[in-house]
């Protein structure tokens, strides 16, 4: 209420970063500016702030009590900032430990004096920020605890490579045309949702990609370092792994742009893997421990051709028929410069192999299958998990998982990646996890 604009902006920013790091339930985040990525709006938090402000105002009905709550909140923030700054001095800046301790004792002693005067006012309104802090810490801890337990379950129950190899290149089912993107939290191994899917359905796609979206604790990730690609099993299995890394301030791409960039990077990975004797030997031995960051080159393995049709505001469509070969390193900039100010342009992208490319026949065949699978269609497969505490768990764990975590999961938004997937291409596989 005292610094409403600062509180609103700070709350939006902190909630977004905590959600990206898996420390807060997923909420709707609206980017209100195309130029300033950090300018966001979180409707749920805005409503919560309004309700809390009205509750405190109506409940206290006194500026004196509100001042006591505000004073304790401010001095607590100052002391926490001093503690975090001490860690920055020692851990991030790598300064002398003595310098960090001197900083802490100098500023901390001053703040403790102010805090001691505020603590005597806890029963006169100062308890409000303490209760709110406890509630939000409890929510964050339960959510992070449930997420970690789910990840540990996936690690312990992942499919062994031996089981995958016994299925053969056909995986024991009919391989149909198309590309299947299986979203998983694992960055190594095969998730259990894949075996659950294969054993219950008689067909699967000819190209399988295990996609893992990772938010790393940096503001931005360069597009050239975003995709980390690898192979699972022998080449004839056509199973790949892709780790897509985003910073907590990066904006996730739409499904169309993501598919195009994924195919381009997979083409570069296939070409680079063929040039590396170590990678070729690892793939023949069915190793699943080699991942590489795919960087663009001046001669891409897969050429993307964009065909843009223009629709003017008056409704007339102008098929100019122009095409432009887009190289991997500047595909985003070229497409953006096509956008006119007073018309709507629809982009259609197709892929083809370079005409004068000197590649091995097996590499060309694999790239051709990749393009055919993309043209046939892309299906998104996601595991819809239900987490429950095992029967031998303690009462506190059952309350945290069965009640707390499941309540938060049911009442918060799904993963950001699921919101950009078209419903006609989404397949959900339900599983129950006992942790």
From TrEMBL:
Residues 2-165 form the K+ potassium transporter integral membrane domain. It is a multi-pass membrane protein. It comes from the Eukaryota. Keywords: Ion transport, Membrane, Potassium, Potassium transport, Transmembrane, Transmembrane helix, Transport. It is found in: Membrane. InterPro entries: K+_transporter (IPR003855), K_trans_C (IPR053952), K_trans_N (IPR053951). The chain crosses the membrane at residues 45-63, 69-90, 97-115, 127-147. Residues 178-433 form the K+ potassium transporter C-terminal domain. GO terms for cellular component: membrane. One of its GO terms (molecular function) is potassium ion transmembrane transporter activity. Belongs to the HAK/KUP transporter (TC 2.A.72.3) family. This is Potassium transporter. It comes from Ceratopteris richardii (Triangle waterfern).
């Amino acid at each position: 209420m005292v610094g409403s604009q600062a509180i609103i902006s700070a709350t939006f920013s902190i909630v977004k970063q905590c959600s990206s790091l898996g420390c807060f339930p997923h909420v709707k985040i609206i980017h209100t500016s195309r130029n300033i990525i950090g300018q966001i709006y979180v409707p749920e938090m805005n409503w919560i702030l309004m309700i809390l402000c009205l509750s405190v105002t109506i409940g206290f009905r006194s500026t004196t009590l509100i001042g006591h709550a505000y004073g304790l909140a401010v001095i607590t923030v100052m002391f926490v900032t001093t503690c975090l700054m001490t860690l920055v001095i020692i851990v991030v800046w790598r300064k002398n430990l003595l310098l960090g301790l001197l900083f802490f004792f100098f500023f901390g002693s001053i703040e403790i004096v102010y805090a001691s005067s505020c603590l005597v006012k806890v029963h006169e309104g100062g308890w409000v920020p303490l209760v709110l802090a406890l509630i939000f810490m409890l929510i964050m801890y339960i959510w992070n605890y449930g997420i970690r337990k789910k990840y540990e379950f996936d690690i312990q129950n992942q499919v062994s490579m031996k089981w995958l190899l016994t299925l053969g290149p056909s995986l024991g089912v009919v391989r149909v045309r198309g590309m299947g993107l299986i979203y998983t939290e694992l960055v190594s191994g095969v998730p259990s949702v894949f075996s659950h899917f294969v054993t219950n359905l008689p067909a699967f796609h000819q190209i399988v990609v295990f996609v893992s979206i990772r938010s790393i604790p940096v503001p931005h990730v360069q597009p050239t370092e975003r995709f980390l690609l690898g192979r699972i099993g022998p080449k004839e299995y056509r199973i790949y792994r892709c780790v897509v890394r985003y910073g907590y301030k990066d904006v996730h791409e739409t499904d169309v742009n993501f598919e195009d960039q994924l195919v381009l990077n997979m083409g570069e990975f296939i070409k680079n893997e063929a040039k590396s004797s170590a990678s070729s030997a690892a793939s023949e031995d069915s190793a699943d421990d080699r991942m590489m960051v795919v960087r663009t080159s001046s001669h891409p393995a897969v050429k993307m051709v964009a065909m843009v049709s223009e629709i003017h505001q008056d409704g007339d469509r102008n098929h100019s028929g122009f095409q432009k070969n887009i190289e991997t390193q500047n595909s985003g900039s070229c497409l953006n410069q096509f956008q006119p100010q007073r018309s709507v342009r629809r982009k259609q992208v197709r892929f083809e192999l370079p005409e004068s490319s000197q590649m091995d026949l097996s590499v060309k065949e694999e790239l051709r299958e990749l393009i055919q699978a993309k043209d046939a269609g892309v299906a998104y497969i996601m595991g819809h998990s239900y987490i429950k505490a095992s029967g031998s768990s303690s009462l506190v764990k059952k309350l945290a998982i069965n009640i707390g975590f499941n309540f938060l999961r049911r009442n918060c938004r799904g993963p950001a990646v699921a919101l950009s997937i078209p419903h006609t291409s989404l397949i959900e596989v339900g599983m129950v996890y006992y942790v």
